[in-house]
Specification:
Layout lengths: L2 H27 L12 H8 L16 H25 L8 H27 L1 H6 L2 H22 L5 H17 L7 H18 L10
Helix pairs in contact: 1-7, 2-8, 3-4, 3-6, 4-6, 6-7
Length: 213
């Protein structure tokens, strides 16, 4: 394992420890407290909150922006895939599956990178989105997009460019250090937010919605 890879592992360890601290803080806050009389099933509400409620037809306005919604799905799945491929790359496990699979995964991540760039541009040019954005939004998008892009390039051109190898791990290091400090930590808070939503609406018998008779 090369020095740049070891440094990236240290950055990842820092990231995980910081996220663990955030997680412990969330756990210490305890479960939501609702003083109203319980009339629904909290478990079903939480399950609905993390599944069907995320479909565009059940969100407030996502159904009116399907291209953006789809780009967001591709972008986020690409990020998770990039994390997995990073771990595999540390131990050169990606060399044990066929080149066509590397190429296929690389192309998928290139699509995810394009989606990230398109979402960034939309945030810049759309007055409503731009007015709500802050520097953290742009930095987070750029880092996540670069991580996908360099993961894709590393997969497609692996072992053919030492500079690309180094840049890939430099981007990973910056991303891991920034993640628990900026909005990227919503990787953790997303699940807490969906849990609270499901608890609230499940408790009050709103989620899952009642089927019309």
């Amino acid at each position: 394992m090369k020095i740049i890879q070891i440094i990236s592992l240290v950055a990842l360890a820092f990231c995980l420890l910081m996220l663990l601290a955030h997680f412990i803080r969330l756990v210490k806050l305890g479960k939501p407290k609702d003083l109203s009389q319980k009339s629904g099933d909290v478990s079903k509400g939480i399950l609905y909150s993390n599944t069907v409620a995320m479909m565009p037809a059940n969100k407030e306005s996502a159904y009116m922006h399907l291209p953006t919604y789809s780009a967001g799905i591709l972008f986020h799945t690409g990020i998770f895939l990039s994390f997995l491929l990073y771990l595999l790359s540390l131990f050169n496990l990606n060399q044990y599956y066929p080149q066509w699979l590397n190429l296929l995964l690389g192309l998928y991540l290139l699509v995810g990178s394009v989606c990230g760039i398109s979402l960034l541009i939309k945030r810049l040019v759309n007055k409503n989105l731009h007015s709500l954005a802050n520097p953290d939004d742009y930095i987070s998008n750029i880092l996540a997009t670069l991580f996908q892009l360099f993961t894709a390039l590393y997969l497609i051109f692996q072992n053919s460019c030492s500079l690309l190898f180094s840049l890939y791990y430099v981007v990973a290091i910056i991303l891991f250090i920034y993640m628990p400090l900026g909005k990227l930590k919503h990787l953790l808070y997303y699940f807490a937010a969906r849990y609270h939503l499901g608890f609230f609406y499940g408790w009050r018998n709103v989620w899952p919605p009642h089927k019309e008779q």
